[in-house]
Every structure is written in structure tokens, then in C-alpha cells.
Amino acid sequence: RIGEALVAVKSSAFILEYFGNTWLNFSYSFPEMSVIPIENHPAGAMENWGLVQFNPSLFYYLEGRDLIAQKKSVIEVVSHELAHQWFGNLITMDWWSQLWLNEGAASFYQFFGADAYDPEGKWMDRRAVLGVQPGYYTDAFTTALPISQEVYDGSFEFAQGSIIYRKGCAIHTLLWNILGNAYFKGTTQYFKDYAYENTRNAEFLNALQQAADEQNLNLPTELTYIMEGYLYRSGVPLVRVTRTYENLQESVYFRQERFLLDGDGDGSLYFVPFRYITSGRSEESDISWMQLEDEIVLNIQFDTDSDWLLVNPERKSYLITLYDEENYFRLIRELNQENCSLTPAMKGSLFHDVAFVIEKGVLSPDVGLAMMEYLGRETSEIVWFGVLRLHEVFLTNPPSELYEQNFLANVQEALNYAVQLNEDPNNTTSYDVVIEALNMEDPVASSYICVWQNCNREFGPDVGDLDAHVLHHLSRLEGVEEYHCCWGESCKFTAEDWTDFRKHVTFHVYHAYLKRISFPVLDEIGKRCKNEEGDLEMPGDFICQVNNCGKQWISALKYYRHVKWHVSRACKIDPSKKVVDLSHYISCPWRNCNKKLYYVSRVLTHVVQSRAQEKAFACPDCGQCFESKKGFLNHLHRHGTPTHFECDSCHKRFPTKRLLRDHQRNHVNRSQCPLCSVTTSSISN
Ligand SMILES: [Zn+2]
Ligand SMILES: [Zn+2]
Ligand SMILES: [Zn+2]
Ligand SMILES: [Zn+2]
Ligand SMILES: [Zn+2]
Ligand SMILES: [Zn+2]
Ligand SMILES: [Zn+2]
């Protein structure tokens, strides 16, 4: 499989050289390095000194066959294990309670190595989002443990598992943020002073402190003291940013508290260094400090009275930000710009933080929904990773009946858009990540099929193509006395009226679309419905009542698209740009309704679902339609029988795909024995 090993081998050679001679300025210890894939390796990879072992799933990549995401994983893991040749092998931590020195550093340096080898890979954006974010969640609960202990006292009261990697990466990033170049200078000195020895946090932090002193950096106090809250205590600070909008030279208030999803702030305060940017100024500000204070005020200069403020834009500090609503709306306007100036790291981080504060209940879900409206044009998987965190929150607590349908429509649009931008769908990471994360069937691979008589023609992911096609079958029939539906095997529908007949047949197409988007729900709860396919029932008469329009439609698909077009006009959304103006409410434009509605997503739900009677789900097995996910779930609980998903590796069975996926992660994730160097695939092993 030598051809499939090229990326792993080439990147190993390059990154090892780069770390030793350029980046860390301290040569690798041996004349030789081997990288070797081992079948059924119990861990993802293991950084043995001079002989790095890989699970084949993280080693092989073949261009044209595998997704770019696979190539990225290989480079990332290679870079991580090679960083360990210094952080871990050259210098080893004194005890497991200082494991973050190894894993945090390797998880941080991996992005610099990967960036040098693959400069187009947006690795610094990946660091900001994928590199650090998964650690926040664990740290947001009262049960969280600190990632380190100053001295080993025989207890195991420090965090283990992935938070060591993610928060560890975030803390190394924080040190880099505070110290700049002195961080790397200090690290090289640390290698010189302690090569082939064991160290504790103090040795590392003192080396950095020394480098900072040599460069006369202006720190508020000793580094060890600053880092105490991040190393020896758990928790992530929430920074509430309140703007005053008085004039262009503006007072902005920053308040901090510990962020907890399962409780209220416990009075903990942190040294919080942070940078910010404002519209039109892409340079980050210098660092401002909250020094164990619960509030500070900054005077910030803005250029215009519609400028936004973005705190911790590249996520170099460890904190969650919450703004006032006006600032969010200004940021949303920026997201909707054709030439949005925010980087993937900034956008991904914004979604990530908003997910946390919405889950906590301190920000209206409507802000999150409004942020999501531009997503049909978002093709960066880095951003989608942040979006999916918000999506998770909304799945547990849907902000509107049509939420899931709108979200999937956005995903579909973004995927189509990515293809349009000449990105091969088999080769874009975003495609891969979104499909995988949403647990969706691949909508391009599985197309729609025309089941009119023996047609069997296949169509792409846009149901509009099938909708247009099916009318060709019908055009030959016009004028007969009685029309018989020939859709599929079981439909017995007949009509004398030509219009009713065409409405019925095109509704089959729309119904196929509803079944398609409902399919992931079956996987999610692991059931199939055992009812027989029933008769097709059409909701409503497809006459548009928006603004007394009165237009009558044959095709359900076109009818709902038409109503949505009205709504987007009413909300002042340019359908191509989706620019949102949230400053005014609108009255429901449906005849005789006039209900007051404030947010685009609410207007859509109300008009399209309550008034035009669009259904949100259709059971893929029996075809029954439902207005809400709740209705569909009830149906499945009553009529469904459990299905199973089996693990390829160990043949355990799981009721849902999601659980299976969680389980399969254990086959590659590493559990390290705290007493010796053995690693196993699971804690129980
Ligand atoms: Zn590691
Ligand atoms: Zn056909
Ligand atoms: Zn029919
Ligand atoms: Zn109309
Ligand atoms: Zn209404
Ligand atoms: Zn059913
Ligand atoms: Zn298994």
C-alpha cells in the first residue's frame, strides 16, 4: 500500500525537519525516525521515540478515493505525534497530573507543523475551532476537574480524557497569546535546560517567565499566578460585553463570571487577557486584562455608528463571550455580506459561543436562528463545526416547528453551492463533515427516482428536477374521461378533473421529498414503521392568500416556494442575499390574519406551516404526514419496531446510529493507564 502511505511519509519527513531546525530550534534526538501502520492498533497513534505507530485508519490516504478530510486527519496526527518527540519524549512530565504539558503542547504544535506542510489548509482557523472547542463543554459543568495539579499528592483529582488535549491546547494558545514570540524563545530554552529530564509545570512556566522578562513584556503579575485559575481550577470564564452606543468613542463594559451550564457562577474570578476587533479594522487590538476583577470599562473607538465589536476573534484566550442583542444584529449583518470580512475561525467561534449562552438561557434562541439564515452560502467545514454545536442545542430544544427542515434546506443549499464553486463534492471537507455530523444520507449519491409506470429515471438532489419531469408524463394524458394515477405500485387515485389530477401527481413528488428529509429521524431513534403505505392526502388547496395574491398552483413544491418567496419579500430579505432587517416586526400577510411577528424564522413557520399548511415530515415507511417532529416521533413510538446498528469491529449492536458512532470513537480513542505506559481502546479494558 506504498502509494497510500505517501502523505504520511512525506509529511513526517517534512514536519520532523521543520520542528527540529526551524520551529523549536532544537534538533530531533536520533539519526532516524520510522512511522509504521499496525493493523488493529488499539490507539489512534502512539508517539514511541523514533518509532511512531499508527492505526491504519489514520495513516493511509489515496487521492481520488478518499475525502480530503482523511488527508487532513493523517497530517494532523503525524504532526501531533512528531511534536511529542520533544514534548513527552525529550522532556517527560514528572507525573500524570502534568499530562497537559505533553498532550496540550502536542495538540497545539500540531497545527504549526501541519500549517508549514500544508499552507493552504487553513490550519490556524482549525486550531481556533476544532483544536480547542470540544474542551469547553466538559469545563462548563460543576463536575469538571482541573487539568493539572501542582504537586502529586496521591489523589487523582484532575481531569483525564480529551479535555487534557483540548483545554491543554487552549492553555498553550493562551500563553502564546500573552507572550507572543517569548513563548517560543522560552520553550527552546526549556529544551536546552531540561533535555532528557522530567519536569513539572513550574519548570515550564519559569522558562517562559524568563523569556518574558528578557523581552521586558508588561505582564500584570507573575505567569504562574496568572495561570493558576486555568491549570489548578476548573471552569471557563463568561465575559458579558455591554456596549453603550453613546458616540463613536464608546464606553464598553466587560463583566466576568464562571460559566456553568448546570448552575450559576460560583464566584470564581480569572485573569482574563483578551483582544478584539471592530468592523473595518482587521488588526487585532493589543491585550486588555481583567485582573481578577469582575468588571472593567474600555473606551473603544469606532468608525461609524453601525460598527460591530468582536471579542477574542481568533480564540487565543479561553473564554465564552456574550454581547448585547444590538451588537449581535450588527454581526449578523456582516455574516450576510457578500464579502463578509470574518474568517472561518471568527465565524465558527461566534456560533460556538452563541450555542453556549443560548443553551444556558441567557440569550434568545432567535439570535441563533437569525445567525443561521445565511448558512446556505457557507462552505467552510470549520464554520460548520461551530454551527453544529448550535444545531445540537436546537435539536434538544427546537426553537420553531420548522427548525429542522429549514436547517436541512440550508445544508443542502450550502452543499449545492460548494459544488457550484467547482469544489468536487467528493473532495470537499465541508461536505464530508456536514454529512457525517448530521448523520444524513448522502443526498447527492442517493437521487430521486421517477416511479411513474416503468420510467425509473434518476434525478439529482434538487427535487425540482423531478417535479418538472413528471409533468411530461401527464401532458400526454390530457383530455381523457377519467385520469388514473400511475405513481408507484399502490396508488389507486382517480379523478375526472384535470387540475385535481395534476395536483395529486405532483404532490407525490413533494411527498417523496418529505420522506427523504424525514429519513434521518428513523436513524436517530432507531425505529422503522410497520404500517402499510396509506392513501395520499393533500393538505390545502394550493391557493396563495398572501397579500390577497390569489394565485393557484398545481405543484405543491412550487406553491410552498412561492409562499416562502412572499414571506422573504415581506421580511425584506433579498432572496439571493438573504439580508435581514430585524428592526421592525411585520404583520402576518395572510388574508385576515394580521398576527404580529418579529423574526424571519417565526414568520416562515407561521405563514408557511399554520397558514399554507406545509407539512414538516412524512413517514418514509407508511407515508403519513406530520406538522411537527413531535407528531412524527409519537407515530414512530406507536407504530415503530426497533432496528439495529452493528459495530464492524466488535459486533456490538446499538439502537441508533449516533450511539454506534459514539461507540466507534472508542475504538480509536486512547485510554492511557495512569500507572504505566499501556494504552487501551476503552477505560474498562
Ligand atoms: Zn498526544
Ligand atoms: Zn418519469
Ligand atoms: Zn397517486
Ligand atoms: Zn402569492
Ligand atoms: Zn397569520
Ligand atoms: Zn409510518
Ligand atoms: Zn465496537
From TrEMBL:
It holds the Pfam family Peptidase_M1. Keywords: Hydrolase, Metal-binding, Metalloprotease, Protease, Zinc. GO terms for biological process: peptide catabolic process; proteolysis. One of its GO terms (molecular function) is zinc ion binding. It is found in: Cell membrane. The keyword Metal-binding applies. GO terms for cellular component: cytoplasm; extracellular space; plasma membrane. It comes from the Eukaryota. It is a lipid-anchor; GPI-anchor. Belongs to the peptidase M1 family. PANTHER family: AMINOPEPTIDASE, PROTEASE M1 ZINC METALLOPROTEASE. This is Uncharacterized protein. The lineage of its organism: Eukaryota, Metazoa, Ecdysozoa, Arthropoda, Crustacea.
